[in-house]
Amino acid sequence: WRRRSRRRTWRARSSPTSTPTARSPTRAAWRRPCLPRVVPPRPDEPCLLSCPQDITREAWVLTDEAKGYAAGGSREVHLVAAIPPEGASRAALKEEFGDVVFDIARKAAAKNKWIRFERGIVLRTVEDTTDEMQELLKRVENGEVVPDLIKELKRRKLVTKEKVIWYSLKKGPEFVVKRKTLATDVTREHLKSGDWKDLEFKDYNYEAQGQPIAIGYSQPLLEVREAIQNIFLEMGFSEMPTNMFVESSFWNFDALFQPQQHPARDSHDTFFLKAPATTTQLPDDYLEKVKQVHQSGGYGSKGYGYDWKRDEAEKNLLRTHTTAVSARMLYKLAQEEHFAPNS
Question: Which residue range or ranges hold the PheRS DNA binding domain (predicted)?
Fold first, then answer.
């Protein structure tokens, strides 16, 4: 087996009667994609092939440009062939071949003494040319090593060095021409015919993953809520803490300017706590401002005109809505010296 690191293809070389080794002379007519590596079999697998031996060597291969020269001839030969007996001007040849190609072909042809120059005219000095470059490239393409001429080919960027990896494989003790399918279960037909006695069963793999279990799925409305929630989080919003299920009447009602005699605050609509029945952790300065708005108004409001009682505001209850959390957070943000949204 051979793998070229640049082309990344596998080629099998074997003769009809020999084992597949790297030195077999005949190339098979099939290819298959390059495998990432050749590994020895697991302990529970039959040993079809022995562990491979890596054989690495380096070879010179033609570039795409050089392959064109090997097939159709070098540039300098084409340049000489394009010059008529009376010669041609540099401008005409540059127009025909292009500046870059003309410059390369001119230098190579002049080095071989195939052309000369007189007052801007390019003249031929030979009638026929032998394309030694084409012959040399064909030799390299066929795998022949030409160390004394490789330097010139490298200078003209016509060859590159390629690393070739060979794998030498031999038949293992379990090698077969036709792979046998091992049985995985004993069926009713096996028991009836009695051929289960001759079956060869596949070993169990106790490390294999089982079939995934079908479990419940998210409720569609919850998925929509999560999608909307993620949108706001990505925009820089933060979620308010809503895990305080016990709240004071002050934040649940009074801070939202719901009067203390409102029917919603009666015991049949709200669950009040017996222990602890009240709270003492209320901000006195803000509590006083809320009290004034309830009693006499403020900020454009006339108020409710009743005697607001602190004892009623200190009663603990099971939070009846999350707007109470909003009131707490707005007060907390107002205490910050510089408020800025999360980036």
Answer: 74-128
The pLDDT tens digits for 79-115 are 887 888 888 887 888 888 888 888 888 888 888 788 8
Scanning the structure block, which residue is given the tokens 């000489």?
Answer: 80
290 to 167, 247, 287, 317, 325: CA distances (angstroms):
87, 17, 5, 19, 17
Q: Which two tokens stand for residue 49?
A: 């092939």
Helix (H) or strand (E) holding 104: helix 99-111
Averaged pLDDT of the chain: 79
Q: What does the DSSP 8-state code read for residue 19?
A: -
Please report, for the chain, the start and end positions of each structural domain, with discontinuous segments joined by +. 246-335
Is residue 332 very low, low, confident or very high in pLDDT (cuts 50, 70, 90)? very high
Among positive and negative, which fits the CA dihedral 273, 275, 281, 283? Answer: positive
Show the tokens assigned to 262: 């409102």
CA distance 144 to 298: 102
CA pair distance 133, 66, nearest whole angstrom: 10
Asked if 157 and 63 touch (Cβ cutoff 8 Å), the reply is yes
The pLDDT value given to residue 29 = 29
